[in-house]
Amino acid sequence: MLSVRELTVARGGVPVLDGVSLSLAPGEALVLRGPNGIGKTTLLRTIAGLQPAVAGEVEIAGEAAYASHADGIKAQLTVAENLAFWASVHGGTVSDSLFEDFDLIELRDRLAGTLSAGQKRRAGLARLGLVGRQLLLLDEPTVSLDRQSVALFARFLKERHLAGGGAALIATHIDLGLDAPELDLTPFAAKPDAAGGTDEAFL
Ligand SMILES: Nc1ncnc2c1ncn2[C@@H]1O[C@H](COP(=O)(O)OP(=O)(O)OP(=O)(O)O)[C@@H](O)[C@H]1O
């Protein structure tokens, strides 16, 4: 589903990771590890096609969804309205089980602007159940989540997404309890004299 070969990625025109290769088959997850600033976000953005690679190849069979730190939730809409909006964007409907999966039943009629950070995160992550993409590229998905919510999200990934033949590449500093293999990016840190590239400024 995903094949990455000898990828070199850059930020602000400076290569940060060099020669990264990895692959994911349907039903598989891989956790990206490495210290702050090693280039996990840059790698995910490059694989998602949001910025060009300096070198190497990315092949994706099917469609990918990239989820960044942003929740993508509109404050002036309720939780249910937010999810209905995203469902309509992707041509589907919101099932009751999605509210259960992300512990949103009691919050469905609350204005999203009144949610706590973790509740907002759960609502943002629930969008992943609506997009119908086979490959999820997840950048620190559990930021703000308590232990119970992390477990809920891991269960969603395992039982809904991976069990349904999806795949996931996840940058995270915590243990999601997924039993997924890990790739430490530290050995792929680009040498200071690595060939440069360009990218667009982004937040
Ligand atoms: N706009 C920018 N221009 C130049 N360099 C940048 C820019 N934004 C980030 N960087 C640098 O690029 C490198 C890779 O950053 P990236 O966000 O990919 O790391 P990360 O592994 O995701 O970090 P974290 O674990 O802190 O989220 C870092 O050294 C960072 O300081």
Overview of this structure, please?
- This protein has 203 residues and is an alpha/beta fold.
- The protein has one domain: P-loop containing nucleotide triphosphate hydrolases (Rossmann fold, 3-Layer(aba) Sandwich), CATH 3.40.50.
- The chain has helices spanning 40-47, 79-89, 96-101, 117-126, 147-162; strands spanning 2-11, 14-24, 29-33, 55-60, 64-67, 135-139, 167-171, 182-184.
- The strands form 2 sheets. It has a 5-stranded parallel beta sheet, with helices on both faces. It has a 3-stranded antiparallel beta sheet with strand order 2-1-4, with helices on one face.
- The mean pLDDT is 92.
- The structure holds adenosine-5'-triphosphate.
Keywords:
203 residues, alpha/beta, Rossmann fold, 5-stranded parallel beta sheet, globular, binds adenosine-5'-triphosphate, ATP-binding, cytochrome c-type biogenesis, transport, ATP hydrolysis activity
Chart the SSEs and their pairings.
Elements lengths: L1 E10 L2 E11 L4 E5 L6 H8 L7 E6 L3 E4 L11 H11 L6 H6 L15 H10 L8 E5 L7 H16 L4 E5 L10 E3 L19
Parallel strand pairs: 3-7, 3-8, 5-6, 6-7
Antiparallel strand pairs: 1-2, 1-4
The chain binds adenosine-5'-triphosphate.
Calculate Rg over CA atoms: 17 Å
- Count, helices: 5
Measure the end-to-end span: 28 Å
Question: Which descriptor suits the 3D outline?
Answer: globular
- Class derived from helix and strand content: alpha/beta
Lateral strand order in the biggest sheet: 5-6-7-3-8
Q: CATH homologous superfamily - what is it?
A: P-loop containing nucleotide triphosphate hydrolases
Which quaternary structure do these chains form?
Answer: single chain
Main β sheet profile: 5 strands, parallel
Q: Would you list the SSEs in sequence order as H and E?
A: EEEHEEHHHEHEE
